[in-house]
């Protein structure tokens, strides 16, 4: 079900960095919604909107927004299982912010499923969710147990080159219990993950690959998997950047 709510919003300027910062602050203080191609600082209590966060050229207004029960439930599950890990939670919030923005431009028909998958893409790291120790499989299994749509489940299972790591870990059979999602949809989740740092800030895909490799020893399956899959991960990011550059501005 989709709900329509009246909210007071501070509409940020359109630079990506400002959008990301404002979105995270909005989540931490008030919760968040999306509108057009701009981020909204949202509050049902207008007095709580911090107008100092509105940069020059921003506006404060009351708007109508639509919120999806699917995305709200995914966000709530992610918070329940990941908010005790501050860095992981910051990363997830950043990935969700980017995924929502990109999906609204490139694939509005699947925007709810993409947003839900972004919120839950790392839930398999949660100690109370992990079973195999491979977070895409564990997260996808959790999402299925929570009756998430199969597209959400498959996006979690296959995000960010998981097939290569599954092979490294001997878990291809477990991964292949999930359906492979359409590449054009999967690319959006992978793009969001690959352009978000561990602390939720924007980062280039090349920097993200280097950052991941720096955290793992050469004998770790993550190191081996990312080293192998880096060309395809960068290609996925390039495909999204090309689609964004070709998309009609909003």
Walkthrough of the structure:
With 250 residues, the chain is an alpha+beta fold. It folds into 2 domains: 66 residues, Alpha-Beta Plaits (2-Layer Sandwich), CATH 3.30.70; 177 residues, no CATH class. It is built from 11 helices and 4 strands. A 4-stranded antiparallel β-sheet has the order 2-3-1-4. The longest helix is centred in the C-terminal third of the chain and has 26 residues. The radius of gyration is 18 Å and the shape is globular. The N terminus is likely disordered.
Layout of helices and strands:
Layout: E1 2-11, H1 16-29, E2 32-35, E3 38-43, E4 59-68, H2 69-82, H3 86-106, H4 111-120, H5 135-145, H6 150-158, H7 162-169, H8 172-175, H9 183-194, H10 205-215, H11 221-246
Antiparallel strand pairs: 1-3, 1-4, 2-3
Helix pairs in contact: 1-3, 2-4, 3-4, 3-9, 4-6, 4-9, 5-6, 7-11, 9-11, 10-11
């Amino acid at each position: 079900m989709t709900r329509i709510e009246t909210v007071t919003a501070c509409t940020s300027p359109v630079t990506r960095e400002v959008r990301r910062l404002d979105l995270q602050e909005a989540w931490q203080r008030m919760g968040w919604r999306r509108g057009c191609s701009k981020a909204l600082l949202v509050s049902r209590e207008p007095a709580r909107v911090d107008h100092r966060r509105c940069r020059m050229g921003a506006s404060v207004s009351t708007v109508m927004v639509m919120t999806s029960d699917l995305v709200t439930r995914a966000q709530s599950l992610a918070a329940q299982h990941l908010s005790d890990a501050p860095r992981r939670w910051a990363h997830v919030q950043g990935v969700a912010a980017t995924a929502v923005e990109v999906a609204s431009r490139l694939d509005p028909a699947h925007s709810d499923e993409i947003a839900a998958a972004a919120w839950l893409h790392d839930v398999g790291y949660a100690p109370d969710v992990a079973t195999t120790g491979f977070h895409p499989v564990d997260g996808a299994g959790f999402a299925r147990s929570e009756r998430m749509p199969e597209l959400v489940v498959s996006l979690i299972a296959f995000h960010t080159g998981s097939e290569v790591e599954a092979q490294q870990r001997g878990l291809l059979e477990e991964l292949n219990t999930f359906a492979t999602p359409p590449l054009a949809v999967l690319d959006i989740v992978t793009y969001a993950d690959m352009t978000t740092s561990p602390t939720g800030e924007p980062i280039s895909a090349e920097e993200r690959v280097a950052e991941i490799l720096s955290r793992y020893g050469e004998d770790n399956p993550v190191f081996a998997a990312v080293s192998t899959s880096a060309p395809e991960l960068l290609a996925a990011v390039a495909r999204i950047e090309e689609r964004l550059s070709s998309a009609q501005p909003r």
